Amino acid sequence: MPRKFTYDLLRLFRDSYRDTTNLTSNGSPVHRLIEQTSLSKACEIQQKGRGHSIDYWLWADLIAPESQRLLKNVIRVEQQEEADIFYVPFFTTISYFLLEKQECKALYREALKWVTDQPAWQRSEGRDHVIPVHHPWSFKSVRRYKPGQVYLEKDVILPYVPNVDLCDYKCVSETQSKRSTLLFFRGRLKRNAGGKIRSKLVTELQSIEDIIIEEGSAGAKGKVAAQTGMRKSLFCLNPAGDTPSSARLFDAIVSGCIPVIISDELELPFEGILDYSKIALFVSSTDAVQPGWLVKYLRGIDAQRVREMQSNLLKYSRHFLYSSPAQPLGPEDLTWRMFCSLCKCWDFRDTVIFAITVYPFHARNADCWQAGEHQVAYSAVAARGQRIKKRMHISRIAVALLYLSLA
To answer: What membrane topology term does the record carry (predicted)?
Structure first.
């Protein structure tokens, strides 16, 4: 794509980083997009800090020199004709938060026109294109320009990038005996939509001695407070927010704090690959707000099960840590493997545009690939209103970045 949709937006973020770190505090992803990114003269990304944007990490993996890439199930190709799918590397959230409203909308329309004018799009009407939409406001003004664009059986859900540091083997060993808090939550205590349950949980839990429920804050101090609290707790409360999921779930996982998920509509990343019952507890909203029910339930979990789940959290953390270079069985790898399965499952004449989202309120992953030496995919797909399961061997897929004009 032209530079204005990729490199120029990264430069804008870098140049305005200090001024916008807390521009929209308490929930905005601005301060968690791409920290301290620099651009070399060759216009290659050199990542110095930690990235907090899913579209950035996938793009960074694809543009890395092939000799440095560790993932081999997806390859980048230069010619559109060689591609199985097309990844659209447009940083929609950066533009939303850092440009004026009308300027942002104009850039969205321009990006959309550029993409839809390409021969690759016109051949398939976008059915084999991957568009990263990782925030409910990203690309909002043009996102639903085509009926049926969001289709629940083929959209892929990805995890947020954790906002706290990994609690590794040494950390887990040191903190295990210090986890004196039964249940911890730090975040916005009042939310809209499905998040209204938070205020009910606050009323029910806030006065209990070994439970910590507190209002969260953005920035470095907020991160330290959340990280410290999670590392001192056995369980971390994960109620719905404005959407069924939040970054807090993945913060808990990498902190060794067993997530207690209270969200009746939640679809989780890589559900066909990962068994979340080994690392998290699922509680219905109805049960959670019953007086005394949740506390009694948590206190009734035996110590052996807690230790097993803590051990599993340590093993599962790798699946939620974005990195450069992208690691085998990391989130980038699992994402590409899911697309491998979807490419073989779907008849592109019948389906629509792939979308990547970390806000699962409008997406459902139907891929059922399970990790293993033989990489056998079990994919549940919808075809003409019926559920069909197919068994297949995954092969590499070729991805063409819509990246034809750098001028």
So the answer is: Single-pass type II membrane protein
Domain 169-320 classification at class level: alpha beta
Q: Which pLDDT tens digit goes with each residue over 359-377?
A: 332 222 223 223 332 232 2
- Can you spell out the DSSP letters for 369-398? ---STT-EEEEEEEETTEEEEEEEE---EE
Q: Are 280 and 261 in contact (CB under 8 A)?
A: yes
Distance of CA 149 to CAs 212, 265, 324, 407, Å? 42, 21, 31, 30
Q: How many CA atoms lie within 13 A of 148 on its CB side?
A: 8
Token pair recorded at residue 123: 């051949």
What number of other Cβ atoms are within 10 A of residue 112's Cβ?
Answer: 18
Tokens 């890395």 -> residue:
64
What is the Cα–Cα distance from 193 to 207, expressed in whole angstroms? Answer: 25
Query: For the chain, what are the domain ranges?
Result: 3-160+324-401, 169-320
With H, G, I as helix, E, B as strand and everything else as coil, classify residue 17.
Answer: helix
**Given the structure tokens 């659209």, which residue do they identify?**
88
Percent of the chain with pLDDT over 70: 67
- Which tens digits make up the pLDDT trace of 217-241? 777 788 899 999 999 999 999 987 6
- 273 vs 282: CA distance, rounded Å: 18
Please spell the DSSP secondary structure of 28-72, one letter per residue. Answer: -SGGGSBSSEEE-TT--EEE-S-B--HHHHHHHHHHS-GGG----
